[in-house]
Amino acid sequence: MTGRILFIDDDQAGREVALFNLRKAGYEVAAASDGREGLAAFSPEKFDLVVTDVKMPGISGIDVLRRIRSQAPDVPVLVITAFGNVETAVAAMKEGAYDFIGKPFHRDQLLLSVGKAFERRRLAVEVHDLRIRASGVEREIVSVSPAMKRVLEVADRVAATEATVLITGESGTGKEVVARRIHVRSPRAEGPFVAVNCAAIPGELLESELFGHARGAFTGAVRDRAGRFRQAARGTLFLDEIGEIPLPLQAKLLRALQERVVDVVGSDRPVPVDVRVVAATNRDLHERIREGTFREDLYYRLNVVEIRVPPLRERPEDIPPLVERFVQDIGAGREVAVPPGVMGEIKARPWPGNVRELKNACERMVILCGGTEVSLEDLPPLPAHGRVPETGGAAEGGGDEWPPLPPEGLSLVDLEKKVIERALRLKGGNITQAAAFLRIPRHVLVYRIEKYGIRRDA
Known about the structure:
The chain has helices spanning about 10-25, 35-40, 60-70, 85-95, 105-135, 145-160, 175-185, 205-210, 230, 245-260, 285-290, 295-300, 320-330, 340-350, 355-370, 410-425, 430-440, 440-450, and strands spanning about 5-10, 30, 50-55, 75-80, 100-105, 165-170, 195, 235-240, 260, 270, 275-280, 305-310. By secondary structure, the protein is of the alpha/beta class. The chain has four domains: about 5-130, Response regulator (Rossmann fold, 3-Layer(aba) Sandwich); about 145-310, Rossmann fold (3-Layer(aba) Sandwich); about 310-385, Orthogonal Bundle (Helicase, Ruva Protein, domain 3), CATH 1.10.8; about 410-458, Arc Repressor Mutant, subunit A (Orthogonal Bundle). About 30% of the residues are buried. Mean pLDDT is about 85; it is low at about 385-400.
């Protein structure tokens, strides 16, 4: 039996006996000698159950119960009351305690109450997961890279809070998937997840779309409309492409975030809203602030916690498992394999459209595949600027300079990294030969390999 318990009691002798019995039963237990110490030690990620005495100096057990219930309503709390003190026990149950134990208590009584609390939590988690799966909100995130593991770790940590989150990253990296993960792991998971693409709605209609309108507010407003803020009540509102929201509307969005009310178009009465906002953008909002097209105060209100989703070129380890998952899902039962040669070509490509482009390429491969293995011919054709040539010199056929420069620009750092990776592959991972090939000192190449985190077998 496993489970993480925080045991709070100012009675040292009773605390030590309880810790001994709980640990012997297989639980992981941390102890606190009073309410202040217990609250400082508690976090929803660290503990599955809290057991607290009611009568303690300073912060009482009832205060501890209230604070934990507000911070982590899913974590059950058992309270320890003096034997026969029914009033205290009733007060604790009204505040949301799972159960109470009379003091002094027997070992079997403690273990029975703790076991029931864990069983209830397990069932609650199962019901929650079933509801989420049935709703279709969550999308599986396939990742093995340290960069994405860090993204998911931060997302899971912030999910338990009410903080506004700003998710940044290039187009196609999976920002909405991360937003959905935050929602399903939050206390609002059973509420709606409402997504709005701010770039897809004309500016003159976006205010009504977000905040709603009253009947007769404008031509065509034949009935009241709740708006997305109110549709997401007790849930999460995902504002995608937040950088595209018109400047005049930004002040109203800031008021909605700060005051938790919306001003309905055509109405003079603000409407309270209970919603958690997660925003996303592929734009540089700092640059937009400098240009005067994005409010600085709105940026800081949205950016309580920022999560940057890295592009595929920064996490090439994720490409093979993503390809396998996409091919499996798109194949719909067909046994379609991706041979090493094709996988190597896929890993070598830049994928400027990131995961979205990779998924589309996998769909094309599965559709065009005539047998049980995809081939290089099934891959989409590569743009002229999409690959670093193996050798220098002018581009073929027109005397253009190498490498060809795409109109949208390119990253010099990424280009240097790719050239080093290709040189290492060409020389079988031999650093000395690769350095000679690149015409740089060996120690300079070693420095750049460490700087960019390049594997010698990349």
